[in-house]
Amino acid sequence: MGQFLGGAGLGDMIPWFYAMAGFAALVMPLLAGYIADRHTGPVRLLAVCHALSATAMAGLFAYALGHPRPDGAATLALFGAATAFYTPTLPLCNATALAALRRSGADTTKLFPRTRLWGTVGFVAMMWMVNTVWIVPGEGIGICFGGDSTHAMDRMQYTCWQLGAAALLGFVTAAYALLMPHQRPAATYDSPISLRTMLKILRKGNLGMFFLFAMLIGVAQQINNGYATPYITHYRALEGFVGTFGADNATLLMSLSQISEVLWMLCVGAVMARAGVKVTMLMAMVAWSLNFLCFALGDPGSGLWVLAGGMIVYGVAFDFNTVAASLFVEREVSEGSKATAQCLLVMMGRGVGASAGMFAAGAVVNCFCRWTVTPGGRYLMGDWLPVWLIFAAYCAVVAVAFAVFFRSSPAK
Length: 412
Description:
Layout: H1 2-7, H2 14-25, H3 28-40, H4 42-66, H5 72-86, H6 89-103, H7 108-132, E1 133-136, E2 140-143, H8 161-178, H9 195-203, H10 207-233, H11 245-248, H12 250-297, H13 304-332, H14 338-368, E3 369-374, E4 377-382, H15 385-405
Antiparallel strand pairs: 1-2, 3-4
């Protein structure tokens, strides 16, 4: 998305687009959790959210297809609508999977990560497609890996066709959700959603402290989503990197992060069972710092192995944080508040944390880098080294604070 926005002349608005998920996470997941817990069950609401998100994304695709230089406000409004309905799907998927596993008598700590990893497999498949497939109306569809190909910049990773693919798969996912077994709302549940209800969850044990750190580390993923591919792609304009496979295939290269997710997902249950939630979360925070440090020291040329190392530890950062947090919250709250608590987790991490963090990250990037038109295209050029070092230092500080202030028994 960052590469499409940069090419469309909206590069300076990247923080706003990625912060939209944060804004949506402040309200939508908690609202969805309330509706799922008390009225519809998670499965039906999951189908509705995917269908509405796909409809908005299809509208954005149609608009962008007809406007090579789209208006920022119109693009942001359509993207915001798509994001608002998509954001609740993650906690609703978690609630759906965990409920199904509990009904079957399965060990959720072991089987939930194995279930969750298939979402990442799909993510990798789509990254490869978006990286390599080019579409030009009137000329056709093809595949290339950049280099000297005349269609290198027509690939989906640089154009609005990525939005069309997202819309299509959104409708497919909505249809699939309708085929899943219906889950009834909880027979009993806590008081109607309110500030009092949220405070009750936050005051339970050390959940309040846990949600605080979920908010602080939630900044990291949005930084990676928003700026990793524009950073790698800017090397296409630097002498010595023109035509290199890494610089020409940023999205494909970044798929190593998701492949790493799949592999580490197989380990997270065992790690959490042995080490507990504190050590597991701490490992994730340290991995985020190492991820950014590798971006600071690597490049898509001779330093490609360093970038690849950063993407390998990304799997630890994302999986250990996401899965450990979901399982910890699942254990700590009552049956009638499970979907709401999962949504509150998303609200804190991907809402408050991601929104504030994305604007802070955008300010850091804009201090050192600018979108620049070059003979090869429009790229985010500048001094990236201090940018990645600042992000790495931030995650390291959060990890130290978590180690000092968060208390959890080994069993949790």
